[in-house]
Amino acid sequence: MTANTESERVAERLQRSSARHSYDPDVDVDWQAPLVDGAYGKAPERCSLYGTALWDRLDDGQRAELSRQEAAAAAASGIWFELILMQGLVRHVYNSDPTTHNAQYALTEIADECRHSTMFARSIEKSGGVVRRPSRTAHRSGKIFGAVCGPALLFAGAIYVEELADGMQREMMRDDSLQPMIRMISRIHVIEEARHISFAKDELGRAWARHGRVGRELIRWAIAGMAYVATSELLHPKAYTSVGLDPREARQAATANPHWRRTKAAWAAKAVDYFTEIGLIGGPSRRLWRRAGVLD
Ligand SMILES: [Fe+2]
Ligand SMILES: [Fe+2]
């Protein structure tokens, strides 16, 4: 079987699975239900300040609010990356034969990401309605990444962000102490993203094989930089100001917090292991992965 027919087989299977098992968050999430009083948005030990002196200063209500705002910040970072990914997928289809399963599955994925970004935006609105924009660094680097990345970088970026979200949201969907709305959007995202990760791994395998030594080293640096920015976007200054903390002091405390570092590393572990195995993490750019706090 050639790579091309193998790619068609993967895409056809994913198309069939999408047809059988997809969600419409407009109707599958109960947007009218009020937030459960006092319920956390993510487990306290997964909050960026857990275990720090700043955490000790917060009462339980503030900790729960911070957890909901950090969940909202993660949703906002999801929108940021999904918009970048959609651009790349549109270009992927633009360069493809639209009658192939591969192009049609890419269109299906774009449609999934449109629904996800709307779902995340509604969840942010419901968690307090704070307008959240990506940091200036993320906004600018995302613009460049989305406009110029080739298939290897596009699908490596997709795998990193989708696995990071999967690690986080699998925990959230199973934790019945959390806000039901957050559990439901996590469940929807985990199920639909599993297909995106399969598609991205299949695409990345072929794209990576086409690059020589220099191209691979450039991709290693670019994906390390993207992973650094994407991981930083899990935190947002407004999450801290919402509970009366100084955002600069709080971010410094989070960056130095070994609990938060372990949390990020746990969520990113599947992507980091996979990239290490195929050689996408290696050499001097490993230091950026360490700075992101996802690699020892
Ligand atoms: Fe998504
Ligand atoms: Fe996705």
Relative strand content: under 5%
Structural class: mainly alpha
Determine the oligomeric state from the structure.
single chain
Q: What would CATH call the homologous superfamily?
A: Ribonucleotide Reductase, subunit A
Q: What distance separates the N and C termini?
A: 40 Å
List the total number of helices.
13
Tell the overall outline: globular
Secondary-structure element series: HHHHHHHHHHHHH
Q: Uncertain regions: pLDDT < 50 for 5+ in a row?
A: none
- Strand count, sense and closure of the main sheet? none
Protein name: p-aminobenzoate N-oxygenase AurF
GO molecular function, one term: oxidoreductase activity
Region (Disordered): 1-21
Biased composition (Basic and acidic residues): 1-15
Topology overview:
Elements lengths: L2 H18 L4 H4 L24 H5 L2 H35 L6 H26 L9 H13 L2 H24 L5 H30 L3 H20 L4 H5 L5 H9 L2 H21 L7 H6 L5
Bound molecules: fe (ii) ion (FE2) (2 copies).
The site of one fe (ii) ion has 5 residues, from α5 and α8.
Give the key terms.
296 residues, Ribonucleotide Reductase, subunit A, globular, binds fe (ii) ion
